[in-house]
């Protein structure tokens, strides 16, 4: 009997303690809920409002949810802008790129077709109509049907990039070259320049007529120099530099974008070495034999001599501390403006890598 009384007392004390704890938790939860409720309610209200506007504009719920999930990257400030002189004699591709660039910074709007706001397909529709007087219907699924398939490894400026499945795409962008595109992503964002390496599309289409590619060539190369060709793989986000005409041509044939002659190297002078990282596909170039030897000890492969250093034109080396996978860890350029743009984006200026006879970019 005494044991039962003790047990009952213990149970009673436990229940009282539990009630006190539950009350405290409920009180705390009430305080937290009270503080967070306005923000939660506001966010939910904004989401529901965006959804209603999207459905009213003709989007499906699936498309709406996909658009709301598009990441918000800062616009890429390194995008090429054609000069006024170039615009005067621009090709259709350049006209489309120029018109798209002129819309950067304008806000997103569900079903908006410009000129002050755009959704993704509305931007495409506006740009092609005002740049080359071409009628491209909206939405994105209709834009798929008026264009033809093109490989992601053979993109040209003016091509359309799509996200989602064919026949049910959710976003579209205008390719502008060098692995970059312009699009109007979604609510709270503006028309901006993005990179394939940041946010990869699922397939591509071509609206404009194919234009002949600029091919690697040694035309104009002088007797005391060797051209160093510069190529870019927009899908992987990396550059390659070579003085081998055959290598440059082969890379272009498999989808790399030929960016022209980066600089002219002397036929004699200090040796610039080339190394390859088999783990991520990156190449690295250095004038330093000790740097070459150290990289070999950590797994890089020495590929011999790339070219020579000598002359009065500095070739700058900038480092990307945020590179992942095969993305550029370094870029080499004689263009001080390009170097400074990369530094503003967070790259590190590593000074002059070597010297060239002249710059041709």
From TrEMBL:
<dbReference type="InterPro" id="IPR051794">
    <property type="entry name" value="PG_Endopeptidase_C40"/>
</dbReference>
<keyword id="KW-0378">Hydrolase</keyword>
<keyword id="KW-0788">Thiol protease</keyword>
<dbReference type="Pfam" id="PF00877">
    <property type="entry name" value="NLPC_P60"/>
</dbReference>
<feature type="signal peptide">
    <location>
        <begin position="1"/>
        <end position="24"/>
    </location>
</feature>
<keyword id="KW-0645">Protease</keyword>
<protein>
    <submittedName>
        <fullName>C40 family peptidase</fullName>
    </submittedName>
</protein>
<dbReference type="InterPro" id="IPR043708">
    <property type="entry name" value="DUF5648"/>
</dbReference>
<feature type="domain" description="NlpC/P60">
    <location>
        <begin position="90"/>
        <end position="215"/>
    </location>
</feature>
<keyword id="KW-0732">Signal</keyword>
<dbReference type="InterPro" id="IPR000064">
    <property type="entry name" value="NLP_P60_dom"/>
</dbReference>
<dbReference type="Pfam" id="PF18885">
    <property type="entry name" value="DUF5648"/>
</dbReference>
């Amino acid at each position: 009997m005494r044991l039962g009384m003790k047990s009952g007392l213990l149970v009673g004390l436990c229940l009282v303690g539990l009630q006190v704890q539950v009350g405290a938790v409920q009180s705390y939860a009430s305080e937290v809920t009270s503080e967070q409720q306005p923000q939660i309610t506001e966010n939910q209200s904004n989401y529901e409002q965006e959804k209603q506007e999207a459905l009213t504009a003709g989007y499906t719920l699936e498309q709406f949810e996909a658009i709301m999930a598009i990441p918000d990257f800062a616009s890429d400030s390194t995008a090429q802008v054609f000069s006024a002189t170039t615009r005067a004699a621009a090709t259709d591709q350049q006209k489309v790129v120029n018109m798209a660039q002129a819309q950067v910074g304008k806000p997103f709007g569900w079903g908006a077709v410009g000129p002050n706001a755009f959704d993704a397909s509305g931007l495409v529709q506006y740009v092609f109509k005002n740049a080359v007087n071409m009628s491209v219907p909206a939405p994105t699924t209709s834009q798929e049907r008026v264009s033809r398939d093109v490989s992601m490894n053979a993109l040209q400026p003016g091509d359309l990039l799509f996200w989602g499945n064919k026949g049910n795409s959710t976003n579209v962008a205008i390719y502008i070259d060098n692995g970059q595109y312009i699009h109007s992503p979604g609510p709270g964002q503006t028309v901006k320049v993005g990179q394939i390496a940041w946010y990869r599309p699922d397939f591509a289409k071509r609206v404009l007529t194919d234009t002949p590619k600029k091919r690697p060539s040694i035309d104009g190369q002088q007797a005391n120099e060797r051209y160093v060709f510069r190529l870019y793989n927009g899908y992987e986000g990396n550059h390659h530099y070579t003085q081998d005409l055959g290598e440059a041509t082969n890379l272009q044939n498999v989808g790399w974008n030929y960016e022209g002659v980066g600089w002219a190297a002397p036929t004699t002078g200090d040796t610039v070495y080339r190394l390859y990282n088999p783990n991520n596909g990156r190449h690295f170039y250095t004038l330093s034999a000790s740097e070459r030897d150290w990289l070999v000890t950590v797994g890089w492969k020495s590929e011999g001599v790339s070219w020579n250093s000598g002359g009065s034109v500095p070739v700058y080396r900038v480092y990307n501390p945020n590179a992942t996978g095969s993305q550029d860890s370094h870029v080499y350029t004689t263009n001080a403006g390009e170097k400074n743009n990369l530094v503003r984006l967070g790259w590190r200026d590593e000074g002059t890598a070597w010297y060239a006879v002249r710059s041709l970019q």
